[in-house]
Specification:
Rossmann fold; 36% helix; alpha/beta; globular; 9 strands; single chain
Length: 191
C-alpha cells in the first residue's frame, strides 16, 4: 500500500478498506467527486489504474492540479459533479469501478449524483463519505440543518433502490476510523 500523506482525511483504515474492495472485486477504476486539494486523488492514482475526479471550485481545482497534474492516469475536471458523472460513466466498466462520492461541501449534490448514476444504467460499487454510521456516534457525518439534510440511510435509500433495485445490493459501513473520524457507507451490487 502506498503511504497516503493524508488521504481520506488521514484515515488509514479507509485506505485499507479501499484496497480490500479493489482486490476482492478486481477493480481498476475510481471515480471521485470532490477533488479538493487532490490528496486522496493522488492516493487513488498510486493504487488504481484509472482515476476520474471532479471539483466544482476553481480555486481548489487549480490547487489540486499542482499536486496531481503529473499523473497520467488521472482525468481531472472542473464542473458540477452530476454533469461530470453523466459524461464519465459511459466511459467505464461498472464491474471494475468504485465511485467515491465526497463532493458535498458547498452544495449537496449527492442525490443528483445518485440520479445520474441511475440514469447511466450502471451498477458500480459506491462509497459515500461523511455518512452516519449506526452504532458509531464517534464517527462524524454531514448535517445541513437549513436544508433538512442528514447524511443517513433514510435520506438515500430510495435513490439506492432506484440504482440497484430493492434487493439488488448489499450495504456496509466503516467500523474503524482515525484522523478526522468520518463515517462512510459502501454499497455493492448483487451479481
Amino acid at each position: 500500500m502506498q503511504n497516503s500523506g493524508g488521504a481520506f482525511n488521514e484515515d488509514y483504515y479507509m485506505e485499507s478498506k479501499f484496497l480490500d474492495i479493489k482486490e476482492k472485486y478486481n477493480l481498476d477504476t475510481v471515480i471521485e467527486t470532490g477533488t479538493y486539494h487532490g490528496i486522496t486523488t493522488e492516493w487513488f492514482a498510486k493504487n488504481f489504474v484509472n482515476v476520474y475526479t471532479v471539483e466544482c471550485n476553481e480555486v481548489y481545482y487549480e490547487k489540486a492540479k499542482e499536486k496531481i497534474g503529473s499523473y497520467p492516469n488521472i482525468s481531472s475536471h472542473l464542473q458540477d459533479s452530476p454533469v461530470f458523472l453523466k459524461e464519465v460513466l459511459p466511459l467505464v466498466n461498472d464491474s471494475k469501478t468504485i465511485i467515491f462520492l465526497d463532493a458535498h461541501w458547498y452544495t449537496n449534490p449527492v442525490l443528483n449524483e445518485l440520479v445520474a448514476i441511475k440514469e447511466s444504467g450502471k451498477k458500480p460499487i459506491l462509497a459515500i463519505h461523511d455518512f452516519m454510521v449506526p452504532d458509531h456516534p464517534e464517527f462524524g457525518y454531514d448535517i445541513y440543518t437549513e436544508q433538512g439534510i442528514v447524511y443517513n440511510w433514510e435520506w438515500i435509500e430510495k435513490y439506492i433502490e432506484d440504482i440497484y433495485g430493492p434487493k439488488g445490493y448489499t450495504k456496509e459501513y466503516n467500523t474503524e476510523a482515525v484522523g478526522a473520524m468520518r463515517g462512510c457507507i459502501f454499497l455493492y451490487p448483487k451479481k
